[in-house]
């Protein structure tokens, strides 16, 4: 493959069918080496985008919201700048720039600080210990269903104020919204069906309406009887319109669940592939902090997000014009040979570990990072204590998505420590 800087590469990184099979690591390696800022044409009349694949460039973009806007066209590949009505209807804090962004984020940021999240540690530990013990008793399990999907749903439900009885159905709808190109989750496929009738809904997914209706009902209950949870805070705010409250709720339900789930399942898969690393952790629990960060780097559940250049600029020597879409590929940056020694080797003692799993810094840095870190850490701790070895027991199945790097099934056989 020969590419030069800024040329149009003949490489596929967009097709959902590729992602259903594998992570296109070799394609990203070629891009990082030969064309770290590369132009990609798009099908379906979209205008194309710059793919940014190196860690340093991603960080520079995320920290410069004045040049690279989240608000102008949103953060997905879909060009909401061409449909202002849809852009306004679907906007969350993720698709706003400061100062508007600061105003909205401030409403809930206190619930997600390191200190606020630390109070949830014993709850998280009890929940994960219970599901791991049950999985060990079964021995052969689909690890996604048995363990990985449970903890994030239970934790985010508690923080938000979603009653346990509602959680299963709510998160089932949320899965179908974000996995809008996978027929196992969604009846309407984003890249195959006519989704124009749903253009005003997040991810063009009709099931958003079910989540909205639920948010409306829950918020009105919490407004009458506040309980100190996140929905009670949102319901009490004079600052949000009813639609803003609903899109905010959907963002939290999706962001607080999917990505953490995939960190746990990719983490378990990595421990099956690198048994020496599980052994290291068992021998030296002092590695827990660096181990959690390495699992987060390795898993990298968010594949990409997008910004829009608002003025002419230059990235790694490539001229970018105002209005261009700029797409940052977290999953490439986390394996950037310039930032990590032996990036394709799992090293639970890796330090420093400047991964960009939660973003590259700047105003949109993941709100839930401390929650996700807590969940990954207690998960790893309990796995290391209770499971001697993890064996792959069939083919993992990937979600058909170029947006979320996720597993829908992970057949594992677990060997108990005792
Ligand atoms: C391993 C798990 C997680 C990963 C990989 C992840 C990843 C990300 C990424 C990449 C961003 C965008 C950063 C940027 O563009 O600069 C983000 C933003 C966000 N995340 Fe997470 N996240 C995770 C867990 C969570 C959790 C548990 C929550 C729970 C509330 C959450 C809520 C959010 C929200 C609300 C935003 C938007 C922040 C803003 O626009 O200011 N995330 N996350």
How would you describe this protein?
- There is one protein chain.
- The chain is of the alpha+beta class.
- The chain has one domain: Cytochrome p450 (Orthogonal Bundle).
- It is built from 18 helices and twelve strands.
- The protein has helices spanning 16-21, 25-34, 55-62, 84-90, 100-108, 114-118, 121-138, 143-148, 150-160, 164-178, 208-224, 230-236, 242-255, 258-273, 275-283, 288-299, 330-333, 369-386; strands spanning 37-40, 49-52, 68-69, 140-142, 304-309, 313-315, 318-320, 325-329, 387-392, 397-398, 407-409, 411-416.
- The strands form four sheets. The protein has a five-stranded mixed beta sheet. Strands 4-12-9 form a three-stranded antiparallel beta sheet. The chain has a two-stranded antiparallel ribbon with strand order 6-7.
- It starts with 15 loop residues before the first helix and ends with a strand.
- It binds protoporphyrin IX containing FE.
- Protoporphyrin IX containing FE is lined by residues 62, 93-94, 105, 156, 251-252, 255-256, 259-260, 263, 296, 301-302, 305, 330, 357-359, 362, 364-368, 371-372.
């Amino acid at each position: 493959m020969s590419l030069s800087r800024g040329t149009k590469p003949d490489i596929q990184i967009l097709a959902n069918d590729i992602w259903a099979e594998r992570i296109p690591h070799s394609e990203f390696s070629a891009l990082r080496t030969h064309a770290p800022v590369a132009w990609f044409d798009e099908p379906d009349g979209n205008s194309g985008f710059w793919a940014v694949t190196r860690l340093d460039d991603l960080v520079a973009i995320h920290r410069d919201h004045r040049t690279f806007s989240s608000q102008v066209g949103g953060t997905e590949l879909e060009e909401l700048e061409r449909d202002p009505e849809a852009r306004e209807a679907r906007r969350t804090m993720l698709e706003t720039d400061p100062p508007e962004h600061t105003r909205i984020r401030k409403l809930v940021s206190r619930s997600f600080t390191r200190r606020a999240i630390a109070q949830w540690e014993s709850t998280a530990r009890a929940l994960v210990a219970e599901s791991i013990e049950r999985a060990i008793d079964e021995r052969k399990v689909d690890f996604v269903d048995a363990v990985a999907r449970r903890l994030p749903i239970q934790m985010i439900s508690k923080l938000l104020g979603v009653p346990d009885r509602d959680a299963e159905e709510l998160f089932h709808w949320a899965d179908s919204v974000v996995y809008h190109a996978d027929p196992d989750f969604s009846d309407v496929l984003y890249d195959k069906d006519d989704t124009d009738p749903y253009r005003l809904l997040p991810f063009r997914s009709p099931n958003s309406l079910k989540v909205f209706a639920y948010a409306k009902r829950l918020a009105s209950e919490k407004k009458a009887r506040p309980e100190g949870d996140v929905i009670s805070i949102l319901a009490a705010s004079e600052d949000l319109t009813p639609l803003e409250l609903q899109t905010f709720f959907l963002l939290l339900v999706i962001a607080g669940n999917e990505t953490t789930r995939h960190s746990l399942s990719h983490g378990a898969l990595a421990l099956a592939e690198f048994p020496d690393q599980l052994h290291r952790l068992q021998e030296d629990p002092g590695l827990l902090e660096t181990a959690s960060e390495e699992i987060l780097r390795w898993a990298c559940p968010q594949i990409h997000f997008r910004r829009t250049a608002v003025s002419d600029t230059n990235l790694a020597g490539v001229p970018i014009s105002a209005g261009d879409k700029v797409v940052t590929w977290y999953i490439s940056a986390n394996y950037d040979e310039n930032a990590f020694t032996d990036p394709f080797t799992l090293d639970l003692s890796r330090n420093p570990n400047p991964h960009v799993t939660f973003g590259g810094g700047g105003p949109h840095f993941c709100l839930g990072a401390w929650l996700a870190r807590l969940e990954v850490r207690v998960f790893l701790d309990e796995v290391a204590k209770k499971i001697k070895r993890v064996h792959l027991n069939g083919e993992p199945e990937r979600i058909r998505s170029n947006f979320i790097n996720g597993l829908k099934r992970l057949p594992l056989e677990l060997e108990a420590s005792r």
